[in-house]
Amino acid sequence: MEKYIIKNVVKNSEKTGKQIAIRKSRSENLVLRSDARKISNDALVGEVVSIVGKDVVVETIIEGKLLEVHCVQTGTIVSKSKYSNLIATGDIVYFLYEKNGLSKIVKVAERITKFSRISPANRNREQIIAANIDTLLIFTSIFDPDLNTMFIDRLLVSAILNKIKPIICVNKIDLSKSRKFINDLLLQYKKMKIEVHCISVLEELGIDKLKKKIINKKVLISGVSGAGKSSFLNSILGYKAQVVKEISERTNKGIHTTSFSKRYRLSDKGWIIDTPGIREFGIWDLSKEEIGVIFPDFANYYLHCKYTSCTHTHEPDCAVINAVNNEKIDINRYNSYLNIYDSL
For the segment 141-153, what is each residue's pLDDT rounded down to a tens digit? Predict the structure, then answer.
């Protein structure tokens, strides 16, 4: 995420009546975003591999060779994005190439897909975690830290909202003595036809099968700290891409291994973006009226509620509540719904 804040503010020019952008930042190193500025014909195109502050690493082809070019965010950058971070890992960008210096990004292409959350620093802004992905790998563990289905459900809702395929991966199954216990916890997702993989990175169980499912996809791996995400990434890449840290004895929570998002190649067609562990996830651009429609396990019931504006929280003759009472909808999923509904 950028070290400075960019706001797309406009005012009417007194002379022309046209809207012009105003720079608004806490820093003197300003970046102005525009949605209607032409860029140079000399600009090259590439994909963002990583971002640290204003420095952006872009993968591109120059003279037939696949290269990583170090770029900087400065001046005016063309972007249709108004209320989010300007550049995210996975973005397609245009830049002016400097062979012996820092290249300059001049445009961010419109995103095909995005995975985002409410910015923890400003609830009125969107934080793009990754752009142009087709698969979200929700990475968690059965223990240390314990499986949190409410957290999984928040990521699932955001994936469905943004038309990204979710895959759930549960690591550390070697810590459980009962596979039935794990299957019972995850049965609700399998019923919704969401792909679920149970693995053990430590004992090398289930990793090859999962890798075959994602190797040619554009994947974002996301989850809580300490679940073994870095160990898994090292395993599927075949080299030590990330340092592995232990669980904090004081909090029993994971310690952040990844400090910024970075993209790694899985194949010629596929790549995976690793992100820092997430401890809070506020869903961006979701209203209370939409959430009941997005929950796939409500699909067979919400149209049969007595009231068309039913919130499925307290109304009489609510088909969703009746389905919960009759154990047709999992009670944990319904509690997740209430948790998300109350947070909106």
Answer: 999 999 999 999 9
Residues 6 or more apart whose CB falls under 8 angstroms from that of 30 comprise 4, 23
CA 333-130-69 angle, to 5 degrees, is 165
Supply 328's token pair: 């047709």
- The residues near 307 (Cβ < 8 Å, ≥ 6 apart) are 315, 317, 318
Per residue in 183-201, pLDDT (tens digit) is 888 999 998 999 999 999 9
Q: What class, spelled out in words, does domain 289-343 have in CATH?
A: mainly alpha
Q: Where are the domains of the chain?
A: 9-110, 129-274, 289-343
Looking at residue 329, its amino acid is: I
DSSP of 18-86: -EEEE---SSSS-EEEESS----TT-EEEEEEEEETTEEEEEEEETTEEEEEEEE--EEEE-S--SB-S
Q: How far is residue 139 CA from its own chain's centroid? A: 12
Q: Are 334 and 324 in contact (CB under 8 A)?
A: yes
Whether the Cβ atoms of residue 20 and residue 64 lie closer than 8 Å to each other: no
Report the CATH fold assignment for 129-274.
Rossmann fold (3.40.50)
**Could you tell me the pTM of the whole model?**
0.84
CATH pick for 9-110 out of 2.40.50.140, 2.40.70.10, 2.40.160.10, 3.40.710.10: 2.40.50.140
Instruction: For 215-275, give the DSSP string.
Output: TTSEEEEEE-TTSSHHHHHHHHHTS--S---PBPTTTSSBPP--SS-EEEESSSS-EEEE-
**pLDDT value at residue 258:** 52
Tell me: pLDDT of 222 over 90: yes
Q: Which residue has the higher pLDDT, 269 or 15?
A: 269
DSSP state of 110: P
